[in-house]
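Figure S7 source data.
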Amino acid sequence: MQTNFTTAQLADPHVQESEKILRKCVHCGFCTATCPTYVTLGNELDSPRGRIYLIKDMLENGRPADKEIVTHIDRCLSCLACMTTCPSGVNYMHLVDHARVHIEKTYRRPLMNRLTRGVLAAVLPYPKRFRAALKLARLGRPFANVFDRVPALKPFAAMLRLAPATVPAQSATASPGSHAAQGARLGRVAILTGCAQPVLEPGINEATVSLLTRLGIEVVVPRGEGCCGALVHHMGREEAALASARQNVDAWTREIGNGGLDAIVITASGCGTTIKDYGFMLRLDPAYAEKAARVSALAKDVTEYLATLDLPEPARKPGLTVAYHSACSMQHGQKITRQPKDLLARAGFVVREPREGHLCCGSAGTYNIMQPEISARLRDRKVRNIEATGASLVATGNIGCITQIASAAKLPVVHTVKLLDWAFGGDKPAGLE
Ligand code: SF4
Ligand code: SF4
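Tokens for the predicted iron/sulfur cluster complex:
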């Protein structure tokens, strides 16, 4: 694609990067076929190619964002299916991230939209606030239908519906400390505690610690870790996202200095995609660029790390048929496609893959709150495809997908690592009795 940025515009390293990305796009439109919003809405402006044109026009003309571009960029799930499909290697992720920062700086959103986004950014990344909010949501749930009648309040209705009926107690794996390897120590990793996941489903990191320590791996929960920053990053709140990234880079760098790390293990693929991008996000910060690149290189999804270990024979072969849902952040963001399925098969599960596996389930961070209608259509399509496999449960590696699919599926939805922990000698996941 031809671009017409001025020399002055190209002095900005963010514009320079976006220009490089734009120039790679050859307008072929292959990406439209796998874009969930184009498939759902059928509008070129809700396709990757359409969004790329909108972003180019906005950046090239140095214009503030307007309602049209905000509408179509807000509808993008950041699922990155377009990056998997694109034959020209267009890095849509970095382009849309830049566009979101530009929107955040130049566009004044309507009051309720600003308020909702402000509430999400102030609550979700902080486990204590999130836990308190979920408890409050239980009381508010009867009002979800009332909120649904006012368009500006629909996100609050979606929040109330997504809130679980009970909030699990806090787990020991969410506190700083070290979990010793059983037997001879074969490795040492840090685990990301995260923000929403340990509140909604602490059993995921418990299963990870149980499995890894049984396999001879010491698991450290470093002091000072926090939210990976993905949530605010996808809102275009770049300073907040970079502050989270720096905080985590500091925590893990200290741990690298203290005893060395073979990996930073992540059990939510949405967080994994962002942490693997810290090197890029902090590339212009001389104090952090090198440390951040080292952290990104160490970041591994738990299945990616497990696949490097010498696994014993499973303690039990559950023999259940599992529909494996590959989260977008897993398959498109991190290009991890083989390891989770291979590990499940190795553990004795029969693995089935739902049709249209490349399409997003509609969770996408806070998308199911901010865009509840499109999200529900994608969720229902996903659940239909999952149920058509005839499997007796669903395995996936991202808490957002678990919450989203479980809100409509009749089958139990379990994190992949909980099934692996069970097969290799751990506890049976709750809900499979
Ligand atoms: S990230 Fe997903 S929703 Fe956004 S343009 Fe690409 S394929 Fe479409
Ligand atoms: S597939 Fe790639 S090159 Fe083709 S239109 Fe989409 S982004 Fe551009």
